[in-house]
Amino acid sequence: MVIRLQAPCILLILFMIISVSCRQQKEETTFTGQDYDFEQEYAEILEVREIFYDLYSPMEAHRLFKQIDLVFDPSILNPLENQYRYGSSNKNAVNLGIYGADMSYCHLFGQTQEAINYMSAIYRLADRLGIGESILTRAEDARDRSVYHPDSLFDIASDIYISADRQLRESDRAGAAALILAGGWIEALYIACSFYDIDNPDSNLEEQILTQKYSLDRLIALLSNYQDDEFIAKYILMFRQLKQSFDSVEILFEQDDLVIDTVNRTIGTAHPTFIYTDYKITEIAKIVTLIRNDMIN
User: Fold this and answer.
1) Facing residues of 195 across strands?
2) How far apart (Å, rounded) are the C-alpha atoms in residues 100 and 184?
3) Can you give the three-state secondary structure of the chain, one letter per residue?
4) Are strands 20-24 and 4-5 parallel, antiparallel or unpaired?
5) Is residue 280 within 8 Å of 249, Cβ to Cβ?
6) pTM for the predicted model, two decimal places
7) 125 — alpha (psi -120 to 50), left (phi > 0) or beta?
8) Per-residue buried b or exposed e for 125-140, using 16+ beta carbons within 10 Å of the residue's own CB
9) Which pLDDT tens digit goes with each residue over 94-150?
10) What radius of gyration do the chain's Cα atoms show?
11) Within 13 Å of residue 96, how many CA atoms lie on the same side as its CB?
């Protein structure tokens, strides 16, 4: 069965705080797309972490999916049987994020049974991470109610990720929390890249992929706090390779096009200009696929 979803092009952030540098008369201005969040200084890492963790979770992958023309294709998701292969805490954490993005994708297309199946995988991986019993009880309740109330599955799963993130950080396991976000981010981007066709390019899809260059900067910064962990250090190197491909892409805007909200600390822009080649999208998609496949295997 093929289900098609199409939505207007709106630049939205996935999982992470985005700050974009561009030059206007040799001055640097940071901005993000519509409703993007930003922080004052990168050096204030504790503040960055707080904003980063509290606002985004793997379940919010639907923000990206809603912006592009997708079909429902379960074959591109991390197979459910893989959940039984993950033995280490780090593998469980990164795939907890991946399965969250997969569940978000299934839920967006109304695939309730598939979403329930991924909820079960989330439950198992969370249990292996030793996440609190109250969180897992809510997961079981969500599975039981979701047949009749599909939206409850998504809402409770989102709450589970937020609670799990907080609990991991409070128990000095912030590296695992970062891996959950990394897994969710790479899976969402992988799903988007799976629909890229160089012979029939979709400019909206390309722009949504390219916008993730800024969230990648934040992801690398976050993971770098835990680079003493060999597992995390490996992915930092892989993400830096991906960054090299993204860095050749330029995103420009007109300063008069910016709308700045100092109360909510957001900056909006409606008409950014992207400078890139189709080959660059293909290169990014290949590296994303390599990283994602390494994570799930």
Assistant:
1) none
2) 6
3) CCCEECCCCCCCCCCCCCCEEEEECCEEEEECCCCEECCCCCCCHHHHHHHHHHHCCHHHHHHHHCCCCEECCHHHCCCHHHHHCCCCHHHHHHHHHHHHHHHHHHHHCCCHHHHHHHHHHHHHHHHHCCCCHHHHHHHHHHHHHCCCCHHHHHHHHHHHHHHHHHHHHHCCCHHHHHHHHHHHHHHHHHHHHHCCCCCCCCHHHHHHHHHHHHHHHHHHHHHHHHCCCHHHHHHHHHHHHHHHHHCCCEEECCHHHEEEECCCCEEEECCCEEECCHHHHHHHHHHHHHHHHHHHC
4) unpaired
5) yes
6) 0.75
7) alpha
8) bbebbebeeebbebbe
9) 999 999 999 999 988 989 899 989 988 988 898 898 886 666 666 566 556 555 455
10) 18
11) 31
* Angstrom distances, CA of residue 233 to CA of 178, 226, 228, 258: 12, 8, 7, 37
The tokens for 167 are 């609990």
- Please tell me which residue, 206 or 258, carries the higher pLDDT value: 206
Distance between CA atoms of residues 98 and 286, nearest Å: 18
| Strand duo 27-31 + 20-24: pairing | antiparallel
Residue 25 buriedness (CB in 10 A; 0-12 / 13-18 / 19+) = exposed
| pLDDT for 207 | 87
Going 272 to 224 to 174 to 176, the CA torsion angle's sign is positive
- How do the domains of the chain map onto residue ranges? 4-296
* Alpha-carbon gap, residue 295 to 297, rounded angstroms: 6
Q: Count of residues for the chain? A: 297
